[in-house]
Amino acid sequence: MSITSILNVAKNAVSLNQTSIQVTSHNISNVNTKGYARQEVVLTEETPMLIGNVLLGNGAKVSGIIRYYDKYLDQQIAKKSTEFGEQQIYKKYFERVESVLNEDNTKLTNNITAFFNAWQELSTDPQNVAMREGLKSSAQQMTRSINNIYNELKSLQIELNNNVKMEIADINRITASIADLNNKVFQGSSGSSEANDYLDRRTQYVKELSSKIGIISFEDEYGRMTIMTSKGKTLVDGGQSWELGVKTNEDTGFYQVGWKDFSGNFIDITDDISSGGIHGLLEMRDNQINDFIADVDKLAEVIISEVNSLHKNGYTLNHNALDPNPDGIPFFKEITGFYAKDIDISDKVKTDLKNIAASSEMDEKGKPIGNGIAIDIAELMEKGLFDDNTSTIVNYTSSITNKIGQLTKAAKDFAQYSEDTMNVMEKQREGVSGVSLDEEMANLIKYQYAFQAASRLFTVADELFQSILGAFK
What we know:
The protein is an alpha+beta fold. 60% of the residues lie in helices and 12% in strands.
């Protein structure tokens, strides 16, 4: 082997060990980087040289930089992210609904009980002005409680609706980023550290996208990824991405989710979204919260109809003595929809307490006597008015809070299960792709000494060369 060959081997050795040190340093600097996969330089022997009849080694070369990852495990983590993202939405918003319906906050049952108790008190002295004022006050407290519950539930729906729009914008950002990374992976060398970093970032984006919407993904022969919705609408294909969009439904006032084709046509896919955070938002907005609004609406409707039905058959203190018929004045405003939203005392009762009808009879002079209406209304609280007349008003309100309590507990349990499973998978991934500082420090020392030894070869070659020159002097 010539001195020139020694210098060439030394040069390659210095270069490859320098590359190894750089990759090791890259690993160390990314030890806490989310989604990073450990890299390693792959070294192979150079083609040997034939000297006479002998093959002599010619040093080593860098044949590539590998990335430690488990493709199957990454796919499973992405799928689990879909479930985890959806369950987190349920947990968050069921807790919010529970807070809205919590008896400690609403005092709904207490206010309903106080309202009917006020009728019971009025029955003891039907013409007492102070008791009538107390009845009016308790009625206002009850209606405010119902109004507030309705308004807060509707506010949650509006928040969910706005979050759908924001999540769609986020999905478009992610798909555009994945398409851009597809181009960079295709353009870059499959064995370069740079391409590996692009793959890490793309894997992280896929996981993030999966948490928002259920997807199907696969790679082509060039490493470019194709991503579709679970129902087959393409989101990413190579370097091209397709956007999702939102459009307001004229009937509900809420956003529909659509897929945009190349011509910009909006194709509604709201009903096709069956998993992920977006599905959780839609399910909470369109079904779960609507169910609770319907429950509270039913409560308000029954109270209004039952109380008004009795009250309109009573005689007020303003009764016309010449009219033998009941006054027909409703206690609550008569409405035909949005009961929980609009429940309120009727204007006639609100402006004149004498229009409260506590009596079901009148004397020979046409003046109201007795307390029949007040007693009948007070007794409504004990009657079965819901669920085929088997559930009282208080039982019905308790069933609403019990239902949200059960749903919240189930959502918390499922979210915890999803989180625990995700953590197990992440630890498994860390075992394959994670960076060990102890291992990297050992490699750093190894490559450092190898670099120094390779550098020493230059000195040896120089001394040999000087010896040859000295022989010719």
